[in-house]
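We store chain and fold; example below:
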Amino acid sequence: MIAAVSGRSLAAAARRAGLRPLVADLFNDADTLALAERAVKLSGSLQNGIDRKRLVETLQKLAGDDNPVAVIYGSGFERDPQMIAAISQHFAVAGNSARTVRLVKDPVSLSQLCTDFAIPHPDICFDTPDNPRDWLIKLTGGAGGSHVRPAHHGTSGQEYYFQRFVRGRNLSALFLANGNKAHMIGLSRQWFSPSESSPFRYGGAVRLLRYNPHRAQQISDWLTALTRRTGLTGLCSADFIVGAEGLHLIEINPRPGATLDIFDTEETPLLRQHLHAVTGSDFSTPSYKISAASAIAYTTKAISAFPDVVWPALTADHQTAGTSLQAGDPVCTVFATAPSASAAMKAVKGRVKQLAVNWREEFS
């Protein structure tokens, strides 16, 4: 059983792993419904998150008379780890415990862990800094980049904190953890798709085929140290900035994330490996000969009724014809593969531009 803000990629990974997914998410888009054995909508919203009060009841109805192997949760649970604890009272949870999620997602806790292991990490604070232009404001447990803003553009609150801005390039590590060691699956480079209200909105990611082996080993060592201290298990990812002073760990994502699509393979399905890792069984990690990339296409203008688009292959998360969209809403996810990371990234960005003609020209 899958529970997430958006469950499509997890449902697709479950099918590749030979599993029959039951999906609960906020969207129930056509792709998810086609992949799922059964699907229901969760109560909540992108802005306010998943509604904790009705979560367990919704999952129980979804399970029905079946006996799901486990619940695998995706994005949306870091904001309220108590939801994980609530689910675990009724179902087996194949993933990190509420305690582990708190350890790695609480900004004070993560900062202390980084200090303990001498892992470079940006300074944090909770009061408005004296020089806000050098800082970002973030939502505790937020995901996807939409919640991140320059500190001088945002307002603070109980759920928010400030993190010093580090200049450099993004680098993300996907890994499988077993509570004792982090096994690297691969590295990816992500990029932003900025909007007026969300300058750090997630745009896409590309799987890297080659990377500095010394830095890759350093990342692996740090993640193993964090795994042993916090008990991380299953598919997780870590986001870094590579700047003038080297690597800085920005955050840990203790669940399958946005790069699952570009790392999963039919030969070594990652959700099957995830289940092995969380149960203490032996697992494998894939090998890659080519690169893959994914990108999200957004609409720049409000659309009263989305047109009927004939979606080509290598796309997913499609908006349904007739749907009303606000400016900045996601329209679909686009994929591409190529012999190199640079070629894959160029290809996927080009495909986004080509597809956008289907909804931009009619409403320009």
